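Feature request disguised as a bug: please show the residue count (395) next to UDP-N-acetyl-D-glucosamine dehydrogenase in the output. Example input:
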Amino acid sequence: MQITVVGQGYVGLPLAIAAADAGFKVFGLDLNQERITLLSRGISLIEDLNDEAVLRNLKSKNYEPTTNPKTINQSEIVLICVPTPITNDNKPDLEALISATTTVGRNLKAETLVIVESTIEPGTCRNILLPIMLKESGLKLGEFEIAYSPERIDPTNKKWGIRNTPKLVAGLTDNATKRAEEFYEKFIESIIICSSLEIAETAKLLENTFRLVNISFINELAIFCQKMGIDITEVISAAATKPYGFMPFYPGVGVGGHCIPVDPLYLAHAAKSIGAPTRLIDLADQINQEMPGYFVGRAEEKISGLKNKKVLVVGVSYKPNVADVRESPVESLITGLKQKGAQVSWHDDLVKVWNGEESVALSSDFDLAIIATPHDYLDLLKLGNVPILNTRGSI
Ligand SMILES: NC(=O)c1ccc[n+]([C@@H]2O[C@H](COP(=O)([O-])OP(=O)(O)OC[C@H]3O[C@@H](n4cnc5c(N)ncnc54)[C@H](O)[C@@H]3O)[C@@H](O)[C@H]2O)c1
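Example output, currently without the count:
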């Protein structure tokens, strides 16, 4: 069976390769020519998907990276995995999704199953994407199928990957649900059927909002523990021995990435549009935004002022062991330090170049090092006697 995966990023690429490994002929469609050229040479672009997996499927011809949307017309299943960021005023930015859906609609043939994987607010599939596909394809309702299946991938998670993380699936019709289930069960162990598109859409937002709220809570508790001289890491370890009713979350400079800081705002936007309260989400977002500033204050305290001090920020991506800097809170941390007059450099061998600046070597030539994102490869001994502020603890 031929399928097209629209968007070959953190979500679409591993999905395309997993489906290709399962024997599907997969077209990996992306607008970004450079990305497609690299993929065609067998270069993975994603930390936890090795080049060998891409090369293997290029060789077997099960995977074909392309910029040509005509592949949609040759596919029985089309999956949409394009970004869903937020605008500067915190509203859902559906530009990429609407553009991809328009392309899918224009090239859609009858009987195709379109599965949306991008994270969206409830009602988006039914009220926005389906009408676009109907209009652009000229097909009638019932002549093609639509389903929603949110992606839960957690880049670099060694325990839970695409194959063993249960997959939520909901179709507009029973037939769409059945076809989506039959597709995913070829390479995913557990498929969970939701009774409507909106249940699956909302479940994804609940999952990520749950994380933001709890991480903001633990960050607030870490501030309290710091003021009390209590080690938050030990507090969490102790609490986590409770076998029920507790799940550990860990403090840091704030959440980042394309999902955790963004998805709750999709939920808040949906709630506000119908007058439902969003107090916890708003507060969690506010605490998250304030964390970099809190650490600027801690840095200032630790070395008695920042003016003209040489500060090294260690790790700038949004989480350890990835090169992804989208929504990274480290950007605000660096801006805040500079505003206080510090001479800020940063080290991150995974990111290398960012915002027109380059990663510098770890060395003892600094007045302070701030551990923002602790990648596994870091050898902190290279910092010698430089005082360290660790954003992951409270001491
Ligand atoms: N990154 C994650 O960890 C993660 C996890 C779960 C869910 N999600 C969700 O999955 C979706 C995709 O996120 P991502 O992280 O994979 O994004 P990404 O930026 O890594 O990849 C998206 C790709 O889509 C391409 N693209 C954009 N518009 C296109 C179009 N019109 N046609 C073809 N290609 C197009 C881009 O060039 C890019 O290569 C988002 O809705 C996100 O919220 C992401």
